[in-house]
Amino acid sequence: MTRLTVEIGDSVQARTEDGRSLRFRTRHESLMFGALALSQGRDLSRAELARLLWPEAEAESASISFRQRLCDLRRLLGDALESDRRTIRLHLPGLVTMERRTSGLDSDSALSVCRSLALAADFDRFCGDRGWTSARLARLAEGILQGESATLHAGQASLPDLVSIAQGVENRLEDRLHAALGAATLQLDGPDRRFARSAPSLLGEEVRRRPDLIRALAALFEAAAIACHRDGRWARAVMCQEEAVRLYREAGDSEALSAAEFKQARMAIDIGRFRSGYEAIGRMRQNGELSTRLMALADLNLVFAHSLAGRLRSAHESAMSFRRCPLARDSVLHPWARLNESVLFCRAGRPREAASAILEAQQEIGPPAHPLDHHWHWHQATDVFVCLGDSARTAFTDTLAQRAAEYRQESMTPINRNRFESSVTDLAARSRTQEWLAAVEEAEAVDLASAHEIVMDGVLAAVVR
Q1: Which structural domain, as residue segments, surrounds residue 29?
Q2: How far apart (Å, rounded) are the C-alpha atoms in residues 462 and 384?
Q3: What pLDDT is stored for residue 205 in this prediction?
Q4: Whole-angstrom Cα distance, residue 235 to residue 70?
Q5: What is the Cα–Cα distance from 196 to 180, expressed in whole angstroms?
Q6: Alpha helix (H) ranges present in 231-271?
Q7: Res 405: pLDDT
Q8: What gap in Å lies between CA 184 and CA 180, rounded to an integer?
Q9: Of the residues 311, 380, 436, 460, which has the maximum number of CB atoms within 10 A of its CB?
Q10: Is the Cβ–Cβ distance between 380 and 347 less than 8 Å?
Q11: Helix (H, G, I), strand (E, B), or coil: what is residue 98?
């Protein structure tokens, strides 16, 4: 979509350059779009829009309604609608917005409401002095590198404070934090290139004699890696994690270094570098470099990596190794282990055992606090239905899982996206088109608040069939 003409008066109307009208499903959707069009590419606060559009609803309910309307808009606008966890914006250079005189009361017209929304939800105005600007992030980075930040007063780094700062910044601004730190240490191009020019002085001998300062910088890089990984910026995530490993090694912090190297290997698996990833984890495990908990995590991840690489015997050995470890019944690790074993069972052609593993994990975790908290289990369930050759359930569950991921604004790792897309596509190619599309249409009509129970019922049916 390169050009769009928008008219806002009693209602909101939009036409593409070929004369096609955009069809909005609800008034809320049209008002959101109108506010975005009037904002002329500025960031609007998601939370404030949700509060204003659904003033009588609880915050959580308003947030769910907002995400549903946002997903509908994204289907209409595609990449022109940009969003992160705190803001949305409409980036369309060919946008032409016309305001029309209204026939009714001005306060009730779509034009009046859209104007109010665009003004009240303007992110810069809404955040005021509390917002994290690129200048503040630049000062934070410079302070950390020079040892002059308040959190590093008297040469004592408060790592929890530093990590809290990094994780509390808006996601897209965390990228600026990464750019500021990265430009200083990695000579990256970015919005803060001036740091690259001063890198030699900022990373001089004084800094290298300060292990606490180096550890603080490493902690910030790890926080940036987590943020980038969460947002689907895989190359940046790997780069940040590699820099954290280098800094922990330079600081001589062996415990933090082991944990960071493990995360680095896990990220390698996430982006499809199987061999380097599981070989690194296996090497760390054999050399005794890991704590008891990291040893358990290593076995869990080796089950997953070996299964996807087709090394089923090695995956089975890793699963048995985890069951023998002291943390085998840990309330967090054991459900995770069962989910990874479901991947192994599917690859081994044992879908009923895979379904049982999912149900056991679900039972241990308990009911989700939020209807979409366990939507990752839906992807695993899709894998089971593919293994069973059940076209209707595969199409139905895969559609629900994709809808949930869109609403939660979550990015699937490349390795998981590839494995699900390839298996689902292969089955779709062998299925009857009419049956597949009917299942997709049925899933599109399901209320996501009740979807988890429906999916788990399907998994249970796979066990007893």
Answers
A1: 3-129
A2: 8
A3: 46
A4: 27
A5: 9
A6: 234-251, 254-270
A7: 80
A8: 7
A9: 380
A10: no
A11: strand
Percent share of the chain, pLDDT over 90: 23
Q: 3-state class of 100 per DSSP?
A: coil
Element (H, E) at 282: helix 274-286
In a domain, 108, yes or no: yes
Q: Do the domain assignments include residue 324? A: no
**Strands 3-8, 94-99: pairing kind:** parallel
Amino acid symbol at 342:
S
Residue from 422, 428, 415, 423 nearest 351 by CA: 423
How far apart, in whole angstroms, are the C-alpha atoms of residue 4 and residue 438? Answer: 32
Residue that terminates a domain, selected from 87, 107, 129: 129
| The pLDDT of residue 33 | 93
Q: What pLDDT is attached to residue 57?
A: 85
Written as six digits, the tokens of 234 are 């895989």
* Predicted pLDDT of residue 240: 75
The residues, any chain, with a CB within 8 Å of residue 407's CB and separated by 6 or more, are 64, 67, 68, 71, 372, 448
Residue 190 covered by a domain: no
Judge contact between 127 and 46, C-beta under 8 A.
no
Residue 396 CB partners (closer than 8 Å, separation 6+): 439, 440, 442, 443, 458
Whole-number pLDDT of residue 211: 63
Q: Work out how many domains the chain is built from and give that number.
A: 2
Q: What is the CATH number of the domain that holds 40?
A: 1.10.10.10
SS3 81: strand
Q: Which residues of the chain have pLDDT under 70?
A: 1-2, 101-107, 123-214, 216-217, 219-220, 223-224, 227, 231, 289, 371, 409-410, 465
The tokens describing 266, both together, are 């896990």
